[in-house]
Amino acid sequence: MSGWKAKRFWKEATISEVEGGYRVELDGRPVRTPAKALMVVPTKAMAEAIAAEWDAQTEEVKPESMPITRSANAALDKVSVQFDEVADMLSAYGGSDLLCYRADSPVELTKRQSDEWDPILDWAEGRFGIRLVCGFGVMPVTQSDENLRVLRDHVGTLSPFEIAAFHDLVGISGSLVLAFAVTEGHLTAQDAWLKSRVDELWQEEQWGPDDEATVLANHKQGEFLMAARIYQMLQS
Question: What is the pLDDT, as a whole number, of residue 177?
């Protein structure tokens, strides 16, 4: 929806149950994606949320204020038509997962990373039957092909709509494991967000916050929490 602008031309956004899910409609006419696919989503909760986004528009339609609509567009126009490529791309994060890259000093930071991240890797080991390798300093970490295959298999079980939301959880946090911890209900989205920020929060404690970095972090946090909310809508 980037670059697309339109004036509001409808009075009411509604939903109707159709084959394959729920369709979003404007004054009874179906909404279509940028690629002209019908806006049919798998759950009533998601359809209602999308309809609410359309109803919230005033004179000019602002796509940036419609994250749930954008996620549905991505699922229908992008993920559905190139599912394997997107799943491969997300699975690759397992090879460079944030939780596996540890500082070698100072000891206060290394301890905090261990305290915050080791229990999540322990959970992943119990859940997926794999143990990801951690490294220290700037040297790259190499995960086994088997570990990466297992992670890819689990990503592959998600639906295109789930993948669209999962994509943002992974990309924003830098961690495939944290994203799974959220979608599997092991962590709340807020807890996972804070764990993804261990290094930055420690730096702030030492040197104080940076205004621009704080604004950017708050924006990313909002997107991360929204992605978790969208994923949850798909479970109802």
Answer: 98
Q: Where are the alpha helices (DSSP H) in the chain?
A: 44-55, 67-74, 83-91, 107-128, 145-155, 160-173, 176-183, 189-196, 198-207, 211-233
Q: Which residue in this structure is represented by tokens 């911890």?
A: 181
Instruction: Tell me the pLDDT band of 1, cut-offs 50, 70 and 90.
Output: very low
Residue 112's alpha-carbon distances to 116, 163, 212, 229, in angstroms, are 6, 31, 25, 28
Q: Which of 90, 60, 92, 91 is nearest to 74 (CA)?
A: 90
The predicted structure's pLDDT at residue 5 = 58
Tokens representing 68?
């749930």
CB 32 within 8 A of CB 2: no
Confidence check: pLDDT of 11 > 60? yes
pTM above 0.85, yes or no: yes
Tokens matching residue 181: 């911890």
- Beta carbons of 176 and 90 less than 8 angstroms apart: yes
Written as one letter, the residue type at 21 is: G
Please tell me the total number of residues recorded for the chain in this structure.
236
